[in-house]
Amino acid sequence: PPRRKQPRRAGWRARGRTRTVRSNLLPPPSAEDSVAGATKGERLQRLGCVQHVADNRLKTTKYTLLSFLPKNLFEQFHRLANVYFVFIALLNFVPAVNAFQPGLALAPVLFILAVTAFKDLWEDYSRYRSDHEINHLGCLVFSREEKKYVNRFWKEIHVGDFVRLRCNEIIPADILLLSSSDPDGLCHIETANLDGETNLKRRQVVRGFSELVSEFNPLTFTSVIECEKPNNDLTRFRGCIIHDNGKKAGLYKENLLLRGCTIRNTEAVVGIVIYAGHETKALLNNSGPRYKRSQLERQMNCDVLWCVLLLVCMSLFSAVGHGLWMQRYQDKKALFDVPESDGSSLSPVTAAVYSFLTMIIVLQVLIPISLYVSIEIVKVCQVYFINQDIELYDEETDSQLQCRALNITEDLGQIQYIFSDKTGTLTENKMVFRRCTVSGIEYSHDANAQRLARYQEADSEEEEVPRGGSSQRGSIGSHQSIRILHRSQSTKSYWRTGSRKTLGSLLDPTHHVYPFSPQEKDITPDPKLLEKVNECDKYLAISRHQEHPLAQLSPELSDVFDFFIALTICNTVVVTSPDQPRQKASHGVPPRAHDALALLRSPSVVSLPEGEHGSLPFRELLSGLRKMQQGASHRERLGQPTPAIASNGYSSPADSWEPEYPQEPQPKQELRFEAESPDEAALVYAAKAYNCALVDRLHDQVSVELPHLGRLTFELLHTLGFDSIRKRMSVVIRHPLTDEINVYTKGADSVVMDLLLPYDARGQHQNKIRSKTQNYLNLYAMEGLRTLCIAKRVLSKEEYACWLQSHLEAESSVDNREELLFQSAIRLETNLHLLGATGIEDRLQDGVPETITKLRQAGLQIWVLTGDKQETAINIAYACKLLDHDEEVITLNAESQEACAALLDQCLHHVQSRGSYTPEKTESCVNVGFSSLYLASATSTVSGPSPSLVIDGRSLAYALDKNLEDKFLFLAKQCRSVLCCRSTPLQKSMVVKLVRSKLKAMTLAIGDGANDVSMIQVADVGVGISGQEGMQAVMASDFAVPRFRYLERLLIVHGHWCYSRLANMVLYFFYKNTMFVGLLFWFQFYCGFSASAMIDQWYLIFFNLLFSSLPQLVTGVLDKNVPAHVLLLKPQLYKSGQNREEYRPRAFWLNMVDAAFQSLICFFIPYLAYYDSDVDMFTWGTPITAIALFTFLLHLGIETKTWTWLNWTACVFSIFLFFTVALIYNASCATCYPPSNPYWTMQALLGDPVFYLICLIAPITALLPRWVLEFVSDFSTHTAAILLPKDQQGAQHSGHKCTIERGHRAGGPGGSGPRVLQTRRGCFGSMS
Predict the structure, then answer these.
(1) What DSSP designation does 70 have?
(2) Is 867 annotated as a binding residue?
(3) Is residue 419 a contact partner of residue 992, using CB atoms and an 8 Å limit?
(4) Annotation-wise, does 982 bind a ligand?
(5) Residue 231, annotated ligand binder?
(6) What is the pTM of this model?
(7) With left for phi above 0 and alpha for psi between -120 and 50, is residue 185 left, alpha or beta?
(8) pLDDT per residue over 819-864, tens digit each?
(9) Parallel, antiparallel, or unpaired for β 1021-1025 and 1039-1041?
(10) Residues belonging to the active site
């Protein structure tokens, strides 16, 4: 595409908190226009002199060719360890204190820096390629010079440009919608790239532009747009458009097309760019990869500081020793000291200072330089193997676990508290309509319950089929009743059954609707209620021409009619039917249809060019109109008039007679419902089962079809969307039958019941309905159903006009708009008339009860934080085994903060005195608000289970107050489970933060919706579930799982492995470096503490970096101290990570003591072997290096529990590499680094039997205590297991002991790999 010749003028100006956008096609304002009332900076901006417009170029790279080296080094030096090693290497360049050749000393740190830099460079290059691909995507931009749309790259788009988009194209920037090919000014977009939701969203052309008859011309656009500055809030957009005549129109998020979304079901749209490039909401939300510091890493940093302190102490001790030694042998200094050039010598104090700095250089390996890089490598490999675990793959959704945070895998093995959402996390979030009550009468829907039971029986029969069976599955639903607590691991899903083809259709770009199962769609209506609905329909069809047809109905039938109208239209469900032309309900045939009919009669239609009218939607339109014309001509031949749409907005087949002879049945096309939440879809399908079907929804009207009344078209005046504070939504409509303005409200019973008309002696009917409905709501909640109340209000014209004025002011406000709209909605949603309530069943996910049981056995405390009402949450909690029927449940419901404080004190006293209480005493304790739903049995004693706590949202708000949070936390800590009901997203995050900060516990939060994001981000580990509420939770999480049940394997298996591997690897690093440094330190006692080393500097520099690094990496990636099936069978083994048995301060210091002991053995055995011999220092030091290598590998062998061919290969390779380098170095580099002369040292040692003898004796002797303790630990474990009764033997697995298991598979998380030998973990195993 041709490039732009010159940059665009600034199309916006910032003014306070707003931005002004104007068309880039307009000429610059004249100087006269700019002078009046404008500052100098504003005049310059208006004249286009200030070019501060963000273009649409995407740049996520961090470096350029020039900035890479300095910027990358600057970032790497943010790590104090790198600064430390560079400082040591530079210190070695000082002649007075150097210990090695300066160039050689730089090699390790340069190697580490180079490896990290290469990794960063590769990642940045990958980002550059991605940026280049996106920046060079094409789109149509209106050109002022060519006066038409031309192709431009995305990166060439600027604020103020006009962009034309076609169906299935991705939106390149944040664009204000000004024109659409849709006759009603609508545009459908898919936001999957933004938030993962595949259901279509509707966007509306800006008010005032959708009425344009001719095609939109960007050259005539002279309006000015005033909107908020760029921000990352995807849920709102505030602004207004100011026309030339001074009139304003409000702008909302429904008018904005966000970058990254895709145009669907709309032939073409045109809009003006509001935000471009990194100012778009999508890019402002892209904060890059999440970085968290794991608890093990924080503890490791603390131990690194201990090593630094130990290094300073050893160097200081050596410096003092050298000063004293120099002072003692002052008279013999000429024998060992080289004088300065002027003949003078150093004083003992100066020599001691130099010795201190030299010892820092010599003993620098005490700080593991490769530890951080090794940990990163191991974590990346661990994440890879977790992703490859076939047991974490969900066939139903064709998704697997995602690791989004690479640096906290070990935290998965230390979790103590799990905070879980309920809906969509523990349950399927697939709603099934079960029961309802209308006008105080309950309809149990027994036939519908029997239908669901048949599905469950079919599921049960499927579960009995063997795994390898070849039975054909039917298309049955995926839900099970919450009362069925045992489910197989294989989910029977309606849209999974059959083949992969069904799943592939979900990924097809033409299929964007959630595939509801027959359980959700095919609802069996209650006969009594269906009869009443039909009675309403028939009566209204007869009396529709009367002035007030609804007034002729009885109060009960009127409520029934309004109830189903509310179910149908009080939502945001989108109806799509791509095979039928969309047209607005109006008087007669729409004008565009007339034009099309005229074209249809013309023979030139056949020769229409493909580019203009030959597109698919237009052909479908012509096809539909041909059918209309054929139907009209057929009716004319029969003498049947063509049905017309009545003036009141509905059409009825009763207006026309039907032929007596039978007609061929025409296949009725099923409409597709695309709902933003499963609740809405369930209610729409329920209404459809009662022949009250939603058939069309536009931005200003909703159409409902009934059998006798025909199509009713309601004028949609306002939609007051749902929010978590109001907990309800409302629609304001003009009723086509009465011409009245009605408000239909649907929401939680806890809020709707408080908004009803006050009790009135004249409203006996409404009072009776309220009390009966409340009783049924309690019944539904006890059955675990999600409840919603349906209410209505009739507005007079005066009331509506008064409210409308304030509402329009709130809509046109830029600042504080959300608060004003919130207050406007509250003013409208009052004095409601209760119609009825619904009970919807949200079924448990497969395996949830079993998973919760396993997690509890693993020592995890599980808290459920839900927005559902208390009774519903309690019922679900019993179904999923969060609560047990034989345990005491404490409920905390307070009406004020004072009452909450009193109840907390009462509860704490009760819990602390449980050891001696009786059921009667408990009963007396729970008189005021503190109730026990299920009291413990009379036989309960101190050893009985801990109670569980249930608290509602209002009481939770009081309990989270600064004065009460400690009491609440202490009470919750004593409870087995905690269930928080009616909790808001903010309360969820506050609870997690409270436990994390006060108890210093490791927390995990899991959820599936946008309301769980804050909780997920606050926890130490956040887990998202890719459910029916989009991907917001996944995008904010550290790990993403397809189902809740996969949390069991993720924590108990992979979490345990990751923590055990990294903890042992870190301890092994400290042990290895301390032991190697110890060898050098003991030598100082024999060299006057002169900081000399008996080990060649080549071995000193490269020993940790090359010779001994690979085996521990392989063990850190592949080692499994306990097999997966044992961990799942004995979840108590997970407690070792919670108690930090692998890596705690005691283990660290025992490890350091063991390293010191081993260094003594490995130093003095060669010393005694070569004592009083004529070997030189390096000939004696080389065997010590070889012994250290053998000791390290044998020590690692003791700690390795899973041996594979990779472990053997790594060990053999390390030995081979050491001896190969030594032989080549000793043969070819005799005088490379004088004064040392390593010539032929290794070759001579290989011919000396003493060398082989000490290489055998020293490692075995050094590791003998570890072997003895291993044997004693194993023997005591076996003895205890034999003596304990069988029912108590399982408790022995809560430690790190495991029976010997031979021949299990290893090499990958899924259990595939080479044959291995599984050994047992002992005392030192849990220590290091």
Answers:
(1) H
(2) yes
(3) yes
(4) yes
(5) no
(6) 0.69
(7) left
(8) 888 899 999 999 999 999 999 887 788 889 999 999 999 999 999 9
(9) parallel
(10) 421
